[in-house]
Design goal:
Strands 1, 2, 8, 9, 10, 11, 17 and 18 form an eight-stranded mixed sheet that branches. An eight-stranded mixed sheet has the order 6-5-13-14-15-12-16-19. A three-stranded antiparallel sheet has the order 3-7-4. The longest helix is centred in the C-terminal third of the chain and has 28 residues, at 327-354. Strand 1, helix 1 and strand 2 form a beta-alpha-beta unit. With 395 residues, the protein is α+β, with helices and mostly antiparallel strands. It has helices spanning 17-28, 41-46, 55-63, 68-73, 93-97, 106-119, 168-171, 240-251, 253-258, 302-323, 327-354, 362-377, 379-390, and strands at 7-13, 33-36, 52-53, 75-77, 79-84, 87-92, 101-103, 123-125, 129-134, 142-147, 150-161, 179-194, 204-208, 211-219, 222-229, 264-278, 281-282, 285-287, 293-294. The protein is globular, with a radius of gyration of 21 Å. Helix 12 packs across helix 13 (379-390). The chain folds into two domains: 7-81 and 105-182 and 273-350, FAD/NAD(P)-binding domain (3-Layer(bba) Sandwich); 185-272 and 355-390, D-Amino Acid Oxidase, Chain A, domain 2.
């Protein structure tokens, strides 16, 4: 990579999948960018995140020249299973929609994007500290940061805030210009990763009187499991044996008889929240991905929403630089938020059916069971669910 320029067309704050994919799509349209990331490359590529890609995400990555390894290593799923108090029922996504999902970890997507970026000679500044954004209400915004080499400043035409929920870009917007909507859920997910074969060829979502569970995978030999837990759960209270026992109970007797257990290679507790910031554009600053919205992981929408955001944003920016038209950038927030709120609705609804809520009475549980019975027993209900799960068409 050549020396870092003092100006570029798009300054991208955040070197996760949203920022990397935006840079890649812009590069393919002849738009220059620089990525600033506060973490190291090893940290970014090692983060354990989601792994279910919608059909539209898969198609976009493939069309952008990023699908070769995904096609070799990704696990294509035509359905999912829902376990209702231990009884498993299958939803045939492919038959209901003609589309599928692919299990391919976000860490792998990130690695593919980094390699493509570096192969193209694109600039990524890792370990950029004290990043700040300035002048985004004018025509020449700037981004400033500090590294071990000293302080630096980048002049650009636009800034893309792809720096996550805790990033600097959204926090730089004056409070009277942004509105946020949030729901914090009263439970978390305890997740483990193990080098054991998955218990099923497809994901199993479980609703049990003791709480939610999910059996997922990262490869034919690596499994990812989750169980609902208290927000303040202490990992010291959850040795591997206890986690496996709880998984067997919540997933049901069929899974318990075949599940392969082993030592966890990663274990963590993640809180669940729904969050949306509106709008997603402030002058020449755009928010994308987790910087603008968070969804509960139940519906596997987080990474896919980020992909949808940067697809719309890259097209709008490319149109501006090619023709001078601001129509696309003027409509970016409206277009992105339409999809965001649809994903929020789906993720909220699915979470509500699968989790145990403290204080909920028997009436509430019976409604959950009835809702899940209707979902798995009615073709119209199953089709509506499947359309959302495999991903609504890009707007």
């Amino acid at each position: 990579m050549s020396a870092l320029p003092g100006r570029t067309q798009v300054g991208i704050v955040g070197g996760g999948p949203a920022g990397l994919l935006l840079a890649h799509l812009l590069h393919r349209r002849g738009v220059a960018s620089v990525i600033l990331e506060r973490r190291s490359r090893a940290h970014v590529e090692g983060r354990i995140r989601a792994g279910v890609l919608e059909q539209g995400t898969v198609d976009l990555l493939a069309a952008s020249g990023l699908g070769a390894r995904m096609a070799r290593e990704g696990l294509v799923h035509g359905g999912i299973e829902v376990a209702i108090d231990g009884v498993r029922r299958r939803l045939d996504l492919a038959a209901l929609t003609g589309r599928r999902v692919t299990v391919y970890g976000q860490t792998e997507v990130t690695k593919d994007l980094v390699e493509a970026r570096l192969a193209a000679g694109g600039a990524i500044v890792y370990e950029a500290e004290d990043v700040s954004v300035h002048g985004f209400d004018g025509e020449r915004p700037t981004v400033r940061w500090r590294t071990a080499a000293g302080e630096a400043e980048l002049a650009c035409d636009f800034i893309a805030g792809c720096d996550g929920f805790h990033g600097v870009c959204r926090r730089s917007v004056p409070a009277d210009r942004i509105r946020t909507y949030e729901r914090v859920y009263p439970f978390g997910w305890l997740g483990i990763l193990s080098d054991t074969p998955p218990v099923s060829d497809e994901l199993i979502y479980a609703s049990h009187e003791r709480g939610f569970a999910l059996a997922s995978m990262r490869s034919p030999t690596r499994s990812r499991y989750y169980i609902q837990c208290d927000l303040d759960a202490d990992l010291a209270d959850w040795p591997d044996e206890r986690v496996w026992d709880e998984l067997k109970l919540r997933l049901g007797p069929e899974a318990a008889a075949t599940i392969r257990t082993g030592p966890s290679i990663e274990k963590s507790v993640a809180p669940l929240r729904s969050f949306v910031a509106e709008p997603m554009r402030f002058g020449r600053l755009f928010l994308a991905g987790d910087a603008a919205h968070i969804v509960p992981p139940t519906g596997a929408k987080g990474l896919n929403l980020a992909v949808a955001d940067v697809k719309v944003l890259s097209e709008a920016l490319a149109e501006f630089f090619a023709t001078g038209s601001e129509e696309g950038i003027d409509r970016y927030s409206e277009r992105a938020l339409r999809r965001v709120w649809r994903a929020q609705r789906f993720s909220w609804w699915f979470s509500a059916q699968l989790h145990r809520y403290d204080g909920a009475d028997g009436f509430a549980r019976r409604l959950q069971l009835t809702e899940l019975d209707y979902l798995t027993g009615s073709e119209p209900a199953a089709r509506a669910f499947a359309e959302n799960y495999v991903g609504l068409p890009f707007d």
